[in-house]
Design a protein that fits this description.
alpha+beta; Immunoglobulin-like; 5-stranded antiparallel beta sheet; 3-stranded antiparallel beta sheet; 8 strands; globular
């Protein structure tokens, strides 16, 4: 081989390496799946997931994503639509779980940003005075719905549950398209 051929082979190898690195890079936390892997490897809505929290263990199931959430009474900017995330939590551990659905449940959108929680005046996701994740005792199950403001042009892409808002412990569910 000549020096010119060796240089061409080295350039080709470098180009392939850069291409592979770009394709296999890690995802960021701004992705709809929450940066915890590819959508293909994430469980879909309806699948229960076990989460260990600092004080107990939970089995969390995102039961359904309602989109659009109609007649909720949510006050939204023009073009935005409401979504509802139905969540079931079962405390299988020995400690009390005490948190807030607004800090624990996040809705990622097809635009890559999270939807903002929204107040729902009525309907299946009506915002209640006492949060369904408040003081969940061992052996107890609770369910509730969290309403979100989905920006114009976006669709729900993933739901994340972060116990007590702790992102390091979060689990993600893919919303079927």
């Amino acid at each position: 081989m000549t020096a010119r051929t060796n240089l061409g082979v080295a350039a080709l190898a470098l180009a392939i390496s850069l291409l592979l690195a770009a394709c296999g890079g890690s995802s960021s936390s701004s992705s709809p799946t929450g940066g915890t892997g590819t959508q293909a490897s994430q469980p879909k809505v309806g699948s229960p997931q076990r989460l260990r929290t600092p004080g107990t263990t939970l089995v969390v199931t995102v039961r359904q994503v309602i989109f659009p959430l109609r007649n909720s009474g949510a006050l939204l900017p023009a073009g935005d639509r409401a979504a509802g995330v139905l969540v079931a939590v079962h405390n299988t551990g020995k400690g009390v779980y005490d948190s807030s659905s607004e800090s624990d449940v996040k809705l990622g959108t097809s635009l890559g940003a999270d939807a903002e929680p929204s107040f729902a005046a009525r309907g299946p996701c009506q915002t209640t005075e006492i949060d369904f994740l408040k003081l969940v005792n061992p052996g107890e199950s609770r369910s509730g719905c969290v309403a979100f403001d989905v920006p114009a042009g976006a669709k729900p892409a993933a739901v994340r549950f972060a116990p007590e808002g702790r992102e390091a412990l979060q689990r993600t569910w893919v919303v079927p398209g």
